Fold each of these.
Amino acid sequence: MQLYLPIADLPVNVFLVLAMGAAVGFVSGMFGIGGGFLMTPLLIFIGITPAVAVASVTSHIAASSFSGALSYWRRRAIDPALASVLLCGGVTGTTLGVWTFTQLRALGQLDLMIALSYVVLLTTVGSLMFSEGLRALMRTRRGALPPRRSHNWIHGLPLKMRFKRSKIYLSVIPVVIVGIVIGFIGAIMGIGGGFILVPIMIYLLRVPTSTVIGTSMVLTLVTMLFATLLHAVTNHLVDAVLALILMVGGVTGAQFGARAGQKIRGEQLRLLLGLLILSVGVRFAIELVIQPSDLFTIRELGVSG
Amino acid sequence: MTRTLLAIVLVLLLGGAARAERLIVSVSNHRVTVTPNYSGEELVLFGSVEKDATTPADRTAYDLVVTVMGPRADMVTRRKERTFGIWINTDYRQFLQVPSYLALFANRPFDAITSPEIARRQQIGLNNVLLTQRVGGDFADVVPNDAFRSAFIRLRTQRGLYREDGSAVTFLTPTLFRTGIPLPAEVPIGTYEVEIKLFANGAFIGKTETAFEIVKVGFEQFVATTARQNGLIYGLATAAMALMTGWMASIVFRKD
């Protein structure tokens, strides 16, 4: 069934978009991530312009993270104090990111910057996660105990605050910085950033796994809602019809993904996610290195009349 | 609609006085509306060559070139080059106010209709259409085999947005003709100008113009104009929609 998208100015097959939303939703529910880094390239692949894709995906991520956050909230798996400190940084970072986005666009090298940051970020995070998952898997197979979590330099910073639900006593400085970094990266790359935030919170901030996904979802939700608004006000590129189809597919897929995720052990889950992120990163890297089939590209600078 | 009528009236008045032939044309639909199930359309242009008393008797075979031009836009063509092992955009050309859709149709191959000189002057064929580039501080079109120009035309042709066909116009009788105007689904919204040029024995003897428009109506138009004019409200509505969808999903799929 074909449906005409009013902002993208393009007819799409509703079932194809629904299926894409469901597939990405399944992955996002399984790993507790937003899935923007998968959705945006998929939309570009079916012919939607990158700008519209990035802008519309933000609202799709907001919907799936809200449904996720609600169920985590019911299970008391969200740390409100930690979430609000993260948000202070997140909102600042998003604003900075949108500003940088505009500056880079004026320089004409935005596409390259986006591709390069995808490559660097995804391959790094992916291989780290993959190797860590592999090590954890070997350890459990050998029956060894996981290494005891030691405090690091981050716990020596001032301005400490007690986060009751997570049962940690931590300085607010690294938390705000993490929020800024994630907000900044998210605004530039059109992603929620959950797949970077979760490892950072686990390994660097030592947030317990019980609250980490729910809390990171709150940050994703608020930054993505904020980004949707910014995109709608500045660029008028959010396609609500496209977003609605993606949302319906996404939230449905996410529920099944979450159930599937509970059946898989944590280490295996990290291994799989690491592999997934790594492969998307490698795909972007290959695109940069091999000779493109067409050396020329056209970009429309806006229709007048 | 009024523009088209005016154009026809104008042609009737001027053509009748100055030229031996006049062209009467019409498009099957002057207003293509984009509905939710819109997936492109094909218009039909038909018309006839009207002779009058002053027409030379030896003029029997006519040639026609139909040019359809969509709304104009600025476009940038970029070329990738290998730098430090990766392919990045290095060079670019800006095309100024070029048609977003361009179709050239004729009843026989363009080079058989008229001389290269007249073809260039009348912009017959994709190679002869004026595509203004910004070259440094200058504005000019370049030779047809320029790398950026030919890449631009090739890419637009691949998407079905630029096309030329030397056999698309058919003469039903020696003076009655028709041609189809295929509009793929991704053609831009806006006003399309149609120019019909008449040739006889290789000489350009007259032209007429008409137009049609592609418009969004109903829901599509409502969404598009709201997004443009009330960005904040539109953004808030989309955000609220996202929250509603997420909330509904968590209710529907609630396990306990």
Amino acid sequence: MQWETVIGLEIHVQLATKTKIFSGASTAFGAAPNTQACAVDLGLPGILPVVNEEAINMAIKFGLGIDADINKVNVFERKNYFYPDLPKGYQTTQLEKPIVGAGHVDITLADGSTKSIRIHHAHLEEDAGKSLHEDFHGMSGIDLNRAGTPLIEIVTEPDLRNAEEAVAFAKKLHSIVTTLGICDGDMSQGSMRFDVNVSVRPKGQQEFGTRTETKNLNSFKFMEAAILKEVERQIDLIEDGGTVIQETRLYNGDTGEARSMRSKEEANDYRYFPCPDLLPVIIDDSRLEKLKTEMPEMPDAKKARFIADFGLSDYDAEILSADQGTANYFEATVHASDDAKLSANWIMGELSRSLNQNSIAISASPVTADMLGGLIKRIKDNTISGKIAKEVFEVLWQGECSTADAVIEKKGLKQVTDTGAIEAMIDDVLANNTQQVENYRVAEEDKRGKMIGFFVGQCMKASKGKANPGMVNQILKQKLDG
Amino acid sequence: MAIDASGVKKVAKLARLSIDDDAVEVTAATISSILELVDSMQAVDTLGVEPLAHPLDAIQRLRPDQVTEENQREQLQGCAPAVEEGLFLVPRVIE
């Protein structure tokens, strides 16, 4: 039987505010345990939460970024459950009146086609603390630094049909929130966490199958693997005569194993009610208008501009516009070098390879956009060849010099374009390889093209790569054929 | 609407409240009488009335995004039964 997969996502995005959503404690990552958990975050008696204005603004910006309606009256509710990393006994969240209403995120698939994924809504809520299950004399350790960190939970419609679409969507969402500057996008630190709802149904069937939810996936790779594994499990189960039960599952990215976390037979009864400590948050037109003026260029618009203004291919434009850091770096490099195509090639090639190898963000690259632009200029004006340019890049990367010109000067890498010097070098090469010269001269015309490569190689070697390859080729041909 | 003994036990479990077995029936009857009151209020025509999110006719004031709470871990952990390496210790929880 042909099966169709149906996927819906819930994504928790940590907002990049300086402080918690309801308290003035810092949200900085990596502090010593419980040093950023104040009385409000701990839920001590007598505390009163006060809403962080920036969290509201960031959530609104997300809504504007996905063409969604913004709800003007916002009510916070209490979602009641007991867990040690939630000391209040409830999570303050939104249910009936989420801040962001229905919107959409458009994704580009590998075959170049686009698909619009509907967003059901996005609501504001607080994060919980962390439980550490290492052995503390048979007890668990609780760090509440994360408790109260503002989140938006984004809920999609079940519009995704396979793991590829889900990953494309997740990457696009990452691009949107980082461009908006509302999230640092650092998935390794849990800044974006994905819950995937997966079900399968016979192709053509309207009705959805029973879904499972795999929680807390924090990388694109794990999300893809978890979906593939769950789809396979469900299909095998049904084809063997079983039925899928609605349950929450856990996927371990390190081992690739998935298991049931708890069945929802005692369906979670969270007993939501409006939080009596918080009044409705009203979003007035003046706030909306002001935020609209602060909106950056969104990835789709940026991509279209890169194609129109710089003549980039769809593929290159997609990659270079995906995150704000890369886009800014690219534009600065083009500005410095005046060559968009070479800038694109170098950023997606040499630079990103070096950044990946050293796990460095592009914003912290030791080779700045100005430095790379300066290097590209020297390739363009034939001062150096593309091959030598890679050497220069390496020196810049190591921090030995701060400009390409300084490297070229210091290492004597300037390309030799002096005809006399090149001729002398070629004469030497020909004199040292008389047998090869003989072979070349007696060879058929159509074989010579390949054979000349040997001499070019020898000349480039003799010049330590500094001879202008175009000129070497031309003069060699004259001398050999003449 | 009424609540029976099993309903009381379920709600008590969700709220982590301990109710003596011999108090369950009495509690069920008490809660049921409250629910009956709610039932009679349901009869009021509320069509066109906005649900009330808060009894105060006021709107939430917002706070600027500035750190105002410094580290007070020592004081805040003073009343905790067990702490280690800055962590609150609780009975082991693993799902």
